[in-house]
Amino acid sequence: MPAVKHMKWWGWGVEGVSFHWEDKPAFPAFVSRAVGIDITQPPESPKTIEQLHVPAPRISDEVRGRLTDAVGATNVAYDDLDRVVHTYGKSLRDLLRLRAADLPRVPDAIVYPGSEDDVRALVDLAGEADLVLIPFGGGSNISGSLHPLAEEERTVVSVDLGRMDQVLEVDEDSGLARVQAGVLGPDLETQLGRRGWTMGHFPDSFTHSTLGGWVATRSSGMQSDKYGDIARIARGMRVVQPSGTLVVRPVPSTSTGPSTREMVLGSEGRLGVITEVTVQVHRIPENRLMLAYLFPSFEAGLAAMQEISTSDAHPSVTRVSDQYETQMSLATRKASKGFSVSSTVGAQLFKHLERRGWDLDQACLSFIGYEGGRAHVAHEKGIVGAIIKAHGGVGLGKGPAVLYDQKKFDTPYIRDFLLDRGGAADVSETAAPWSKLFPLYTAVVENVRKVYADLGVTGWIMCHLSHSEHSGACLYFTFAFAHDDNPIAQYDRVKEALQGTFIEAGGTLSHHHAVGTEHSRWLEDDISTQGVLMVQGVIDTVDPTHQLNPGKITSV
Amino acid sequence: MPAVKHMKWWGWGVEGVSFHWEDKPAFPAFVSRAVGIDITQPPESPKTIEQLHVPAPRISDEVRGRLTDAVGATNVAYDDLDRVVHTYGKSLRDLLRLRAADLPRVPDAIVYPGSEDDVRALVDLAGEADLVLIPFGGGSNISGSLHPLAEEERTVVSVDLGRMDQVLEVDEDSGLARVQAGVLGPDLETQLGRRGWTMGHFPDSFTHSTLGGWVATRSSGMQSDKYGDIARIARGMRVVQPSGTLVVRPVPSTSTGPSTREMVLGSEGRLGVITEVTVQVHRIPENRLMLAYLFPSFEAGLAAMQEISTSDAHPSVTRVSDQYETQMSLATRKASKGFSVSSTVGAQLFKHLERRGWDLDQACLSFIGYEGGRAHVAHEKGIVGAIIKAHGGVGLGKGPAVLYDQKKFDTPYIRDFLLDRGGAADVSETAAPWSKLFPLYTAVVENVRKVYADLGVTGWIMCHLSHSEHSGACLYFTFAFAHDDNPIAQYDRVKEALQGTFIEAGGTLSHHHAVGTEHSRWLEDDISTQGVLMVQGVIDTVDPTHQLNPGKITSV
């Protein structure tokens, strides 16, 4: 078996790592208030793979033989664990289905190509033997982009790019690195870092997502304000398609008709298997500084981010949480560390703010990142600091930001912790023009709470602004509720409130999580009937017989 | 007749304005040396429209009637002048054909829609009556995107968007303006400027190109380093297509599959008629400063631009001319004004540089633009100044830059001046990674000179870097030669040397001039066979019967 690591089959992250509340004294009371769950009670007993009753592979001996010919016997897997790991991504729906042993269709084989030639052999085989191929990176997708369709009668092969994980070449003069698509975030940054470079792409899924996956879903990262999202970073591409290999040359910009580069971005495997991406890389900056601020309200925080986005400063991170997410952050603080209401500094500051008339229940935590030379960081801090002050914000220094930076990739573990205790949680994000952002936010909160009330559940909704652009920003919502015996039906109601409100309020379906099957029913509302026609046209041109991840993005 | 202004039918710009050499004492000697033409001799006598023998419109009475129904009788034109103006863009090939009265196919009617409803009526009519529609903005295109194909047997209607020229709405909170596609550059900036905004898009064609044209060709402007090219600026769009209207909602970013926005960008009319664009706008900055610098060589200038592009500074303009373009700039200086070898300051500086060992024939002029608050401009000037110094450059202050800024949109007039005197000239531009830029530059100069030698003509080739990006830059070449009796055949040889070398040397066909018919033969070399397949797939999906500007971008 190839040495490709996977996440837990039943949840996020690596085996043996999970969320613990015991060192976070404020957490049980917070969860009880937020979603009505007593986390001090023992959790559900863990599932075992044997309980799943994984259906047998539907694959002929001939196809087995030809898969072996294509990638070698050691790089094909048919065992239950591997097949289950490759059945779903990590959306709430995916995890609920796994926990319910709901596996209507599982990939029949998993292949681990080691080269573009291997991928070519697989794509050719798919055409000849009428297989379905589903490209697979880190498996962290939460938009339903990875599962075989329940009604799929053809043999389904999951193409795991995990062996193709090398930085092949760095053009140091141009700041361009040619990289295999299957590399995971930490491995990529390690390989680049050894040569003194960074790509600067740090999505929340960073530890368990791949370069190819980022391209296929139009990913954004924590520091995209500076480095650009993956659409900016990915300059060149090689994509193995049924009738040939698409080559996007790594030019800095081009005016050669409708952009094929921008067709591959967000294509979720439907336009071929991405084998290689040439990405912009940067020298590791002299200084990387993250500072925390507190705003008297979310509206004030948003207004400050807006003003920063049109100022002379270009911080690497602009982030502000609403009051609910701020309360959650405070509730997950460890007993003895960092900024908190209970720490001496925190208590003094909070008293001071109360005297100034703040309602501390409305306080909103913000992080701003600065990068560059010392003078540049000082220059930008000055501009940003003045804007934050003008909007009533106060500085909290480095402490909370350092803590945030350390635990930012751990948040998804909390979802599994909640699922073990009857709590359902997931995230949905959008982007909208600045003028529509706060109205969208209030409408979402109101509509989701209405659903909670309708369902009769205790639920929580919180939000942060995660990226700023000139004309608007990304709002990232997290929701959680105590579910009943039909959690998927409840989730559907909540999700409907989120996505429907995004569209109605002038936002987009997704800023960086893609469409998959989870968002495809609203796609037409977002990109218009003609937009769907155009997307389907490209798909049908490249893959007329729908061998490649059918049913994703569009339902056809 | 609608009050839509057009350029001269036979050349660039407005009637009554042309290039004059009489106040530029160094120009005749320069032209004599560069292209072997004596400009002090009287020019060819001007052409008249009567000499052209414009073929009669091929249009039925029924279609005439329906065009009138669609846009109103006063907004349809059939006269020779209007039809000739809408036959070509302003490429060298276009101008040579006009001067040779080579008009194999002329639009049969010109329509001036006043609203999206008018455009819808026209697109519907095109489907019903099997017409060809060619959207027309300012007519400044130099890639052969505007002419009807010679073999076109269907009735051809040029759709001039000139009446749709209004800024409809400014979302001041978001910095977004909803604008009709037919607005010309100066009119757009005037309308925005009255409200305190700028779009910051200043292509060389600014005075005679439109918003819709910029989108349809993926235009870049002088200040794109700061404001972004049109692909960044254009957030929302409305595009009238045969089976419906594509609506791209103006969200700051989105992850909703292959980008339909990026399909419209560069679509040259083939994916419908762009009626409206929602663009990013900016408050007019406190300071707009352009400074001139001089480098000891082009290589040094390129290296400095590269270092600036990865520095903490983000100037609004980065431009450096090679020694040949620098010589041309000096040769077009007016007798008494500004920086020059003959001015006292210039002479002193040049003597000083010679003492420092400069070969003044190799000196390269550079302009860097700064925008923002006073402290910000000072901060960026400091960073850039240190980099320029490290690469051997010296500052020349504001003088040359002010002059450049004043005359930057006048350069195309020189081409007509030369054409009147037996000189053929045009421009070609590319973009390539920094590592490939100087080798590409030297290969282009060498290969074009080889062609000049083969042809036995005196010719000139010069270049500037016009935009910097993180991983590379745009190189903009201008060529001119004394042509013989078959100037188009000679031009084809020169153009082949340019475009072929771009591709071979790792550059793209065009950074911001589009494909049209002029570059389509190299498209596959640039975007790969699969890339052409994908582009054709989108076109065929939207316009299966090829009613919309057929033969552009791809030859089908």
Automatic annotation (TrEMBL), chains A, B:
Family: Belongs to the FAD-binding oxidoreductase/transferase type 4 family.
Keyword Transferase tagged: yes
GO molecular function: alkylglycerone-phosphate synthase activity; FAD binding; oxidoreductase activity
Gene3D superfamilies found in the cross-reference section: 3.30.300.330, 3.30.465.10, 3.30.70.3450, Uridine Diphospho-n-acetylenolpyruvylglucosamine Reductase, domain 2 (3.30.43.10)
Enzyme class: transferase
EC number(s) recorded for this UniProt protein: 2.5.1.26
Protein name per its UniProtKB record: Alkyldihydroxyacetonephosphate synthase
A Pfam family: FAD-oxidase_C
Domain of life: Bacteria
InterPro entries, sorted: Alkyl-DHAP_Synthase, FAD-bd_oxidored_4_C, FAD-bd_PCMH, FAD-bd_PCMH-like_sf, FAD-bd_PCMH_sub1, FAD-bd_PCMH_sub2, FAD-linked_Oxase-like_C, Oxid_FAD_bind_N
Organism: Microlunatus antarcticus
Active-site residue numbers: 476
Residues annotated to bind substrate: 415
Biological process annotations from GO: lipid biosynthetic process
